């Protein structure tokens, strides 16, 4: 395979000139540029990325930290990040944190040593001081880490308001909100939207905390249907919790949507695979991943950000777990 | 942060000696080793991975090529690969190929330039000559690329035989096999198992080709239920196809499992989220990912493989889409 010396020889310039050309640093005459480009094409030369990252102190690797890629929300997010990253010549290092600060720190340390160019981080941790001293750009996705880190989130309050309003419009009068973990910003915002939508309405409401995992949601949904046998609506803070509630309700002989209506939040593909299909407040997961990636690459490439915090609208998707008006 | 010169100075040895020590190449006296180790610990020195990968011509990055991370099988596989890789100090670069040879080649070229240490590849491509000249180790996962590449697969013939036998034991007499793409090894093997299990039995069978995507499976399942209104069993070559068939059957008023029984293949988490839960032939996805990763790391680290081709057993999981005997 051709190396930088071959290119210099073929282009009749010095190795230093080729290096300046490749790293886009320092002066290279137009004539030299042309002969180097011709030499690169004719020799089918591929610059060695590791050697280049040493001189530019940068690779085109982006670390993507997610709680767990097997949670249905994150493959769709990872897909968007990878698609956009690739179109700019970047690749993605996948990191599952299991919501543990130690694992997030381990990955940050391992990848910073490899001159990773930046991080996109989705963390459930309520306190994340280990992001404060990181020497490369970071964009927070789906959750706010702290005010100095640029962030892409869904408008969770408005989304929850729309989802709850739909339940009310379809006739629900006695509604449980399965809310996400207390203290987690997006979960708090979704409860806020639920409360705003029901505040001055003639409905009974109950709020029950529920983690995002399927197994935990199944147990809590079962308890809800026993404790509150008269409810006719559930607004869940995630599609996974909503689908767990659907499964439990059907197993307990409740008809969805005639007897009990359910609205989820997230918009994962899974929602259209269940029967009946899940009515949900869909985040634009792909758009969020794409925004975050473009913002990060701008920061990596020293382009200034026009917006530091981007909020993406959510959209109601009506399927079969709510009644047609 | 301490650099290699600080370590050399602290240990009273030359930089070259520290470098030989770090790269495990060339002679370093026992006394020098001890003082370098002490210096590294006392200075909290972390070797710069990019600089080291230049001298050892190797990074601890593993490229993971999958068709599409949003297909529910692959997040579970990616999770296993990442867990095991991390325990050996390797990290994963995620690559979605969309089953396109060009995209697989692009990633191989990009990552080989970055001195990726090896690849784990899941490809649906029937011909994949672009893997022949790759200069780093490769392990094929879930599908065989060619005979020279070590492979981890499920025993698909046996798995399909067990799944079909269960349908028969539960009383199905008129069964459609929704088979995967013709020519794809694992899909061919699953049909083989289906045929073997039904060959000498008093049952009617039909074989219909169906891709693995949910949308395509929905359309094909609908056509099957119209073309063959008398069927009482479906054996699907993937859980996604099976779940599409379940949804379509329920929408068309067929009762599952009383009127129609369904068995899937894969064992993804999704199968337990639908109602009724999906009876399926479960691959041990985590074990497959873990095996493949350990094999690849052995190859990267020049340890000989005891087995070149590993076959993992599949296991029947009985849930609600088949009748209790």
TrEMBL record, chains A, B:
Q: Which residues form the HTH lacI-type domain?
A: 2-56
The record's annotation in InterPro entries points to: HTH_LacI, LacI/GalR-like_sensor, Lambda_DNA-bd_dom_sf, Peripla_BP_I
Keyword Transcription assigned to the entry: answer is yes
Organism superkingdom: Bacteria
Q: Which CDD domains match?
A: HTH_LacI, PBP1_Qymf-like
Record has RNA-binding as a keyword: no
Alphabetized, the UniProt keywords read:
DNA-binding, Repressor, Transcription, Transcription regulation
Its recorded name reads: Ribose operon repressor
Name its species.
Answer: Lysinibacillus contaminans
Question: Which lineage ranks, top first, belong to the organism behind this chain?
Answer: Bacteria, Bacillati, Bacillota, Bacilli, Bacillales
């Amino acid at each position: 395979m051709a190396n930088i010396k071959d290119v210099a020889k073929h282009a009749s310039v010095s190795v230093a000139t080729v290096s300046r050309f490749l790293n886009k640093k320092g002066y290279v005459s137009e004539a030299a540029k042309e002969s180097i480009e011709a030499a690169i094409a004719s020799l089918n030369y591929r610059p060695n990325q590791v050697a280049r990252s040493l001189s530019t102190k940068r690779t085109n690797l982006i670390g993507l930290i997610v709680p767990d890629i097997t949670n249905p929300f994150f493959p769709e997010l990872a897909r968007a990040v990878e698609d956009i990253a690739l179109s700019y010549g970047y690749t993605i290092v996948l990191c599952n944190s299991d919501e543990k600060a130690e694992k997030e720190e381990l990955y940050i340390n391992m990848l910073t040593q490899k001159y990773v160019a930046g991080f996109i981080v989705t963390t459930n941790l309520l306190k994340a001081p280990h992001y404060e001293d990181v020497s490369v750009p970071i964009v927070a996705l789906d959750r706010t880490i702290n005010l100095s880190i640029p962030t892409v989130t869904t408008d969770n309050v408005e989304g929850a308001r729309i989802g709850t309003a739909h339940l009310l419009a379809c006739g629900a009068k006695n509604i449980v909100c399965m809310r996400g973990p207390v203290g987690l910003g997006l979960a708090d915002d979704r409860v806020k939207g639920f409360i705003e939508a029901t505040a001055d309405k003639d409905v009974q409401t109950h709020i029950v905390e529920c983690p995002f995992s399927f197994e935990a949601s199944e147990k809590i949904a079962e308890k809800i249907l026993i404790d509150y046998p008269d409810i006719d609506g559930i607004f869940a803070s995630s599609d996974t919790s909503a689908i767990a509630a659907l499964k439990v309700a059907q197993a307990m002989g409740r008809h969805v949507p005639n007897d009990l209506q359910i609205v989820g939040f997230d918009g994962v593909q899974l929602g259209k695979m269940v029967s009946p299909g899940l009515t949900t407040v869909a985040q634009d997961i792909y758009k969020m991943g794409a925004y975050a990636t473009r913002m990060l690459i701008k920061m990596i490439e020293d382009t200034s950000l026009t917006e530091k915090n981007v909020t993406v609208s959510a959209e109601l998707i009506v399927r079969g777990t709510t009644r047609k008006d």
